[in-house]
Design brief:
2 copies of one chain form a homodimer. Chain A has 215 residues and is α+β, with helices and mostly antiparallel strands. The first copy, chain A, has helices spanning 22-31, 68-73, 116-130, 134-137, 143-148, and strands spanning 18-19, 34-41, 44-55, 58-64, 77-90, 98-109, 111-112, 149-155, 158-164, 182-190, 194-195. In chain A, β5 and β6 (98-109) form a beta hairpin. Chain A starts with 17 loop residues before the first strand and ends in a 20-residue tail after the last strand. At the A-B interface, β2, β3, β4, α2 and β5 of A face β2, β3, β4, α2 and β5 of B.
């Protein structure tokens, strides 16, 4: 989970993790809406969890207009990270103890999406990304609701991925050490939908809800 | 998932999310080792995923000595965030569309842990936090391995939590809108352990592996 060490340390074990191909980067972003946006506020680092989605080669996130995160990041550098935990890797030494994971890091400038049509289109994309067709089933947004929702987008030009998968990788000598090694898979599981007790008696759950999946 | 909007927006819907009691904060940190550490590097924000653990009122994380994250943060301000996604909240409007979640944000100075005994003790705590007793079963760490592993700690004095749970909260008028509303629970699931194909024939999986749980 740690970064590639600098050349000074003479340890290169994480170098192989870095991936830059578009399929890997987009695949991770599309699998996990939860992201962490880091920014500098009055000289200090802040990281805020929020939800992201992708449209082609741009990433989008939203927040409260007037809130610190959206206000501070607008037009400024951010670093956005998406991480998925896939397993615990139990090696034969603490040093090779690890986690299987997929993560993406994006650097860039947060651009506000202000065009009303584009903002509407992207918010629809956000909701439909969870449950296809859901936007059109909902009570339509009011001008005030759209006004207090801010939207930022960022180019995916400076994006990179790290992926660690598979069994433990131990030092050659350690394979003779008598300890159990292996991996414990970790997966996000979606439970049975819980209808709101205040649902009207005649509403039906859209079939697409059953297909909801992340991770 | 977004922050509490400022007073200017006249919208206060997220104010109720903030929690500051120790049990809530510690409970979230103990449930999820994955964290995101934000810091300022050459004036720009960076966020790095890593693994954290807690000892009393301090939080710890490790990384490669000489790596950018550990080098840059040492003695400097960081913001560390732990987030757990608990469900998708399908409300009757896009505006009230939300996620159930638990998150903790900690601000503070990253202090390097340099005392060898304390470093050893904390790394043991880290490994045993996943699988109790595992540290003593592993091939012991070498001085070189301990040397290339850096450890930081931070006070939990400036920590706060946000928790959103339960059914959708719609505008009063919207409860008459004929659309299905409800929540889709999301949970981290641990799969059956996968033994390393290179395990020695006589090694047995520790019973504690079966109890591994996060989220």
């Amino acid at each position: 989970m740690t970064e590639a060490p600098s050349a000074r340390t003479k340890v290169n074990r994480y170098r192989w993790l870095a991936k830059y191909d578009v399929d890997t980067v987009y695949g991770i972003l599309d699998a996990m809406p939860l992201c962490h946006v880091a920014y500098v506020h009055e000289g200090k680092p802040v990281v805020t969890p929020t939800l992201q989605w992708r449209d082609g080669d741009r990433i989008y996130w939203h927040g409260a207009a007037g809130g610190r995160m959206m206000n501070t990041t607008q037009g400024h550098e951010v670093c956005l990270c998406v991480s998925i935990l896939d397993g615990l890797v139990m090696a034969r030494s603490a040093f090779n103890f690890n986690v299987n994971h997929r993560s993406v890091m994006v650097f860039g400038i947060a651009h506000p999406v202000t065009d009303p049509d584009e903002k509407y289109r992207q918010l629809k994309r956000f909701v439909d990304g969870f449950v296809p067709g859901q936007w059109d089933r909902l009570r339509p947004p009011t001008p005030n609701e759209l006004g207090v929702t801010a939207l930022h987008s960022m180019s995916l030009t400076e994006a990179s991925a790290k992926v660690r998968a598979g069994p433990p990788e131990d030092n050659d000598d350690d394979y003779n050490f008598a300890v159990w090694a292996g991996t414990l898979p970790i997966q996000l599981q979606i439970g049975a939908p819980i209808p709101d007790p205040r649902n009207l008696p005649d509403v039906e759950m859209p079939a697409e809800v059953q297909d909801f999946k992340i991770g």
